[in-house]
Design goal:
545 residues, FAD/NAD(P)-binding domain, 20 strands
């Protein structure tokens, strides 16, 4: 072994948040762990950089939702390693329709942890019947959403799903047992159908639909009901933004890892897998350094993992063809001299969380239809966030950072347009879409950083600009993600290689569940005698082929 080479128990490829979570759990179990990352910035899509002098800007995610429900923050005691969240409360704001919009004028919708206050806002904006329906909606769907949380934290096996969802059928408080058929209809149905069954106000439906659509599929698709119903959990634990930016989470994970003896190497990522005797034996980095290890956890895109395996890729990897899609969204990071100001609502009510700037689901349907056709959305639908209003570490006094997310922007445009050429004009249209609800916002903008689908691929290694790695439709979730053969976090035919990251169950977003479950699978395999591991692996590979 050369002097610069190293030997560890496990090497993790990719220092995104899922890779860091996996590394932390492995190191906590006593393994010697090294992470290798091509980027000079830690955290992948959960990172923050100084974009302009004195201004800290997230490169990917900003509001953390799923990870705050997962238990990972507490299990790894990340607060002791510097992580501090600012609660997004109120967690959702939807403006009153602008003058000239179809439908009646009304009050803004303010959705907060306080269920009573949320229902009062719904009553004022949409009527008392919908307020009462929302209260009942939370009562019915919160336990179901907690079951989804449990399922996200387990391997997507039949037994795991039963463990997560079986309690929903048990009698509670004298109510009759819920039938499996009723649950199946609700969970497999569309978000639109769910909203139409529960509510009458289109404004309320549009706000909840826009929240639910953040996972990717439009809420008209089957299986999206649970994405909409996730809002019921936010009355317990709201989304949060780490102090100092989204990268506060991954920085805390790194400190936790290093406290347990792990190591992170930036700027020198894996170039290829090392294979000896038909099993993984480590990685070789771009600089030629070799990290020997009997376990490699690939926390990168599953198709990048296939490239790393090269000639050693087994059929399960060679044949993998998960739906990556045609882009996902466009992100505009704006440096402004004022936060967005929405008429009729106090800044504290509007700026704490997600500004859901949509008043009718037809807007969402139109944007998605344009995306399917490979067109830019004719009517961009923005979601805005301004966490500098509650975190003064992000920008100097008198300056603010506003993130504007526009969903369903194609990576590849049907008319052949060049994203580098149209980035500024599309950013201006998205800024104008915010200004439609917050007059004067466009004039407050001083600098823009535009992350097109193409730039998301270049900057964050998000293939085709898909921030979820693989589409989040029903056919690519649970035991189908990224493919049925690869859904167990192992790679059949190449012992020692494990998958983590957004390509695996439960998918994209800031959750950490993929990394934790991958680590659990690694540790379970290490507890088996070598002869049993080999036999079990062969049987599993044979069963899947």
């Amino acid at each position: 072994m050369r002097a610069q080479d190293t030997a560890v128990d496990a090497v993790v490829v990719g220092a995104g948040h899922n890779g860091l979570v996996a590394a932390c759990y492995l190191a906590r179990a006593g393994l010697r762990v090294e992470m290798v990352e091509r980027d000079e910035v830690l955290g992948g899509a959960v990172s923050t950089v100084e974009r302009w002098p004195g201004v800290r800007v997230d490169r990917g995610s900003s509001a953390h939702v799923v990870v705050r429900q997962s238990g990972i923050v507490e299990e790894l005691d990340l607060a002791a390693h510097g992580l501090r969240y600012v609660d997004c409360d109120p967690w959702g704001f939807a403006p009153a329709p602008s003058p000239g919009d179809p439908g009646p004028d009304g009050q803004p919708l303010v959705l907060s942890v306080d269920l009573d206050a949320t229902c009062a806002s719904i009553a004022a904006a949409c009527g008392p019947a919908d307020a009462a329906a929302y209260r009942r909606f939370v009562e019915v769907w919160a336990p179901r959403s907690r079951a989804v949380v449990a399922s996200f934290g387990r391997r997507p096996t039949a037994a795991g799903l039963v463990r997560s969802f079986w309690p929903l059928g048990a009698p509670a408080d004298g109510r009759p047992r819920t039938s499996g058929g009723d649950l199946a209809v609700d969970f497999l149905g569309s978000g639109d159908a769910l909203l139409d069954r529960w509510f009458t106000s289109e404004r309320l439906k549009a706000a909840l639909a826009w929240f639910g659509a953040q996972s990717g599929p439009p809420v008209s698709e089957p299986g999206t009901a649970a994405m909409v119903a996730w809002v019921t959990l936010l009355h317990d634990v709201p989304p949060g933004h780490p102090v100092g930016g989204s990268g506060g989470l991954t920085q805390a994970l790194r400190r936790r890892l290093e406290a347990d003896g792990g190591r992170v190497t930036l700027g020198d990522g894996a170039a290829r897998l090392l294979v000896e005797g038909g099993r993984v034996s480590g990685v070789e980095t771009g600089s030629g350094r070799r990290v020997a290890a009997p376990v490699v956890v690939a926390a990168c895109h599953v198709l990048a993992t296939r490239d790393l395996a090269g000639e050693h890729a087994p059929p399960a990897l060679v044949q993998a063809d998960p739906p990556v899609g045609n882009g996902f969204g466009l992100v505009v990071r704006a440096l402004t001299d004022a936060p967005p100001a929405y008429p009729g609502v106090e800044p504290a009510q509007a700026l704490g969380g997600l500004q859901l700037l949509c008043t009718h689901r037809a807007q969402l349907a139109g944007a998605h239809g344009d995306w399917l056709a490979g067109r830019l959305p004719r009517d961009p639908v923005p979601l805005a966030m301004c966490f500098s209003a509650s975190d003064d570490t992000l920008a100097p006094p008198g300056r603010h950072v506003v993130t504007i997310w526009g969903q369903w922007y194609p990576y590849e445009l049907a008319d052949g347009a060049d994203w580098d050429a149209i980035a500024e004009s599309e950013a201006a249209r998205l800024v104008a879409a915010v200004a439609r609800f917050a007059p004067g916002f466009a004039a407050s903008v001083q600098r823009l950083y535009v992350q097109t689908p193409l730039l998301l691929e270049r900057e964050l290694s998000l293939l085709r600009g898909n921030v979820m790695h693989v589409e989040m439709g029903l056919a690519s979730m649970f035991a189908f993600r990224p493919t049925p053969a690869l859904s167990g976090y192992r790679v059949p035919g190449l012992p020692g290689l494990y998958l983590a990251g957004a390509s695996t169950h439960p998918g994209g977003g800031v959750s950490g569940n993929s990394g934790r479950t991958a680590a659990r699978v690694v540790l379970a395999d290490r507890r088996l005698p070598a002869r049993v591991r080999t036999t079990a692996g062969r049987l599993l590979a044979r069963a899947r082929t």
